[in-house]
Design a protein that fits this description.
Chains A, B: Keywords: Chaperone, GTP-binding, Hydrolase, Nucleotide-binding. The structure is a homodimer of 323-residue chains. Chain A contains 15 helices and 7 strands. Chain A is an alpha/beta fold and 323 residues long.
Chain lengths: 323, 323
């Protein structure tokens, strides 16, 4: 009971819902640190979730994600909306986060209590999106954020991951970062609900927008489109000056309205919950496998047998799951 | 028994070991297609694995991975070694592989039966390294390849994945693709056993090599180095002309010798087998979860309850694993 005396989850959730930034911060820390209270926190938050529009923002390093996030916050605040930002940096474990000090610019909003910004380090070598990001997004949702922006460095896998997490995925590009076809190789044409070419005042921006539109039309998902399906717009913006940002917010709102008008929102959220539940279940099983099992079939000794050619991976997996 | 009449696994493995390219191709197809014979194939291969030097080659799009692979094959063939190549393209599902026709250049070796090249599409949205890549590498290993090169488009996650798969990870860079610090954001400084700056005849190549060396020395893994640890070399090459490629092969051999001299090779291979076994076990459990469970706790209905705020992800995961 002494832990409950230190941290009253119900009270914390109440204060977070009332907009207290410190309570929000504490809840996200409980989530990030996999606190023993985590289950209690998630159970207390569940009834209050589902209101926020979760927007994933992804793009290669250097396209201006932080500047764009900043501009989007400003625009969303002007329309009176509360904004939460989770900045996930899938960079190397040794840096512990951004190397370039990007985050500092977000200090612009430090005194606005309608904005909550949190930088989330990705943990360990299997980084990308931190496993706790979906839970942190739930905290911001329950805390009354109208929009939750999840910003990731778009390097391959994390783009796909952020698309799994978000209601709306916005892919940011910029001219001079490699051509459109190269971009296609990283799979971004599959994930975007909205494409924004930042630095639209630079050479090559118009060409990039044209190339992107062509590439999108070449994609299989385009061919499968039906009447009434969402057509991802390809917008231009100059985040530094704010040019084009109101149009980006309008497009985000339109996508949200489109999703809400059909089954899209429920489908995406069920898919997201599915991935979350599965990840938590898999993590629980992995923790079991790391112990020496009652069957003597712990993962380490099975792996050693496979490496030595004494067993094969399928036979070892069968033993692990107790077949 | 009729299936056995069509595909005699033992015979196929025997022919693959004798160097018949069609038998190798058939075995990899059985692996890729998750054939019902897969378990039998892997069990038959196991005793013949562990000889090949598995080299991961990764780098951003445009650095010249295919050209470098080509040059490495040529160099390895000159020293009489048999070479297997798995070209994994973590690009979008709709492209089904490379968009740029990179692979065509590999046709140079089409008539050399000491070279086996296979392009492996990554499957589905959770692509990156195809889940079957480690098994395909086992096929090439058992088929007598001295070196198995696994080439991936290095976009974040896949670099880390290829490092998990390989004995030796070679990171390819090129000048003019963004500065060293940007490279660091994608985590490549953690994974390389060997760094090669391709297009070394271009402006900025020397600076890139210097920056890389500095960045490597700033890394945590450098500080933890002990006497006798491997120091990742940073080489230069012009793959197009073959300049520097013999030195790259020498460095690969040196790393292999270093690994073999200590416990490094066994450790890496056990780690690799561990990841393989775990992935197969998780896939088996996921397949179970997709069915309506005996407890009525199938993943879809649990996910729908979480999405609706009626449950939380932890409670749902507990039900899924039957706690």
């Amino acid at each position: 009971m002494s832990r409950r005396a230190d941290t009253d989850v119900a009270d914390l959730v109440e204060r977070a819902r009332a907009g207290q930034a410190r309570a929000v911060a504490r809840l996200i820390s409980l989530v990030e640190d996999a606190s023993p209270l985590l289950r209690e926190v998630m159970a207390a938050l569940a009834p209050h979730t589902g209101r926020a529009h979760v927007v994933g923002l992804t793009g290669a390093p250097g396209v201006g994600k932080s500047t764009t996030t900043n501009a989007l916050i400003r625009e969303l605040r002007e329309s009176g909306r509360r904004v939460g930002v989770l900045a996930v940096d899938p960079s190397s474990p040794f840096s512990g986060g951004a190397l370039l000090g990007d985050r500092i610019r977000m200090g612009d909003h430090a005194e606005d209590d309608g904005v909550y910004i949190r930088s989330m380090a990705s943990r360990g070598h299997l980084g990308g999106l931190s496993a706790t990001t979906p839970q942190a997004a739930r905290v911001l949702d329950a805390a009354g954020c109208d929009v939750v922006l999840v910003e990731t460095v778009g390097v391959g896998q994390s783009e796909v991951e952020v698309a799994g997490l978000a209601d709306t995925t916005m892919v940011l590009l910029a001219p001079g970062m490699g051509d459109g076809i190269q971009a296609a190789k990283a799979g971004i044409l599959e994930v975007g609900d909205l494409y924004v070419v930042n630095k639209a005042d630079r050479d090559g921006a118009e060409k990039l927008r044209r190339d992107l539109r062509s590439a999108l039309r070449l994609g299989a998902s385009w061919a499968d489109r039906a009447e009434g399906d969402w057509e991802p717009p390809v917008l231009g913006a100059v985040a530094q000056s704010g040019r084009g940002i109101p149009e980006v917010v309008t497009a985000l709102d339109e996508h949200h309205a489109w999703l809400s008008g059909g089954e899209g929102l429920a489908l995406r959220r069920t898919r997201r919950a599915r991935a979350e539940v599965e990840a938590i279940a898999v993590a629980a099983l992995r923790a079991q496998w790391d112990d020496v099992g009652a069957r003597g079939a712990d993962l380490d000794s099975l792996a050693a047998a496979v490496a030595a050619g004494e067993s094969d991976p399928y036979a070892a997996a069968d033993r692990l799951v107790g077949r």
